[in-house]
Design a protein that fits this description.
Bound molecules: flavin mononucleotide
Shape: globular
CATH architecture: 3-Layer(aba) Sandwich
CATH superfamily: NADH Oxidase
Number of domains: 1
Helix content: 25-40%
Distance between the termini: 29 Å
Oligomer: single chain
Length: about 170
């Protein structure tokens, strides 16, 4: 597993190749295996595969131009009617998002996390565009596709970020 964690990189260039339905299902299963506060699992996943919808999302998201090339995108949302502590809702969705990235990596599918929450404008525009119910909060969008760029494994050791027994 740890090799997978280091292999995961943000991929923003994709081949023109569809992702099989089984791979998408496997990625969603991984998302649903994320830890969840009170085990409420108040998440929803909107899978977008239609080119014209991906293109519109690329217009809405200021740093999401790679959506024009992506084979799919998954919008991770939280249901505020099920989890009333919105901080937990966002953390659950973040954990699910990371699982999506890792499972995609394990399938040799490239991915990049596109922030939605806490940017009000993006949250409103995406909610309107996808007609999300009132209680459903969009948290993150993941662009997916077979990689058309290679990035070396991460080498992220930050000694200054580690504190033993005291600050
Ligand atoms: C909350 C969050 C929001 C992000 N938003 C964007 C984004 O809008 N567009 C983008 O291209 N990358 C986005 N990223 C990806 C980061 O830029 C990327 O993870 C970082 O540069 C490190 O590169 P790596 O993922 O290859 O290790 C986001 C990552 C996180 C965790």
């Amino acid at each position: 597993m740890s090799r997978l964690i280091f292999k995961r990189r943000s991929i923003r260039k994709f081949k023109e190749l569809a992702i099989p339905d089984e791979a998408i299902s496997q990625i969603l299963k991984a998302a649903m295996a994320a830890p969840s506060a009170n085990n409420i699992k108040a998440w929803h996943f909107v899978v977008i595969t239609k080119t014209e919808l991906l293109a519109r999302l690329a217009q809405i998201h200021p740093y999401g131009k790679m959506l024009n090339q992506a084979a799919a995108a998954i919008l991770v949302c939280g249901d505020a009617a099920k989890q009333s502590v919105t901080g937990y809702l966002h953390m659950d969705c973040a954990a699910a998002t990371q699982n999506i990235l890792l499972e995609a990596t394990s399938l040799d599918i490239g991915s990049v996390w596109l922030g939605i929450y806490p940017r009000d404008k993006r949250m409103i525009e995406i909610s309107d565009f996808l007609n999300l119910p009132k209680s459903i909060l969009p948290v993150s969008l993941v662009a997916l596709g077979y990689p058309a760029e290679y990035k070396p494994a991460n080498n992220p050791w930050q000694a200054e970020a580690v504190h033993y027994n005291k600050w």
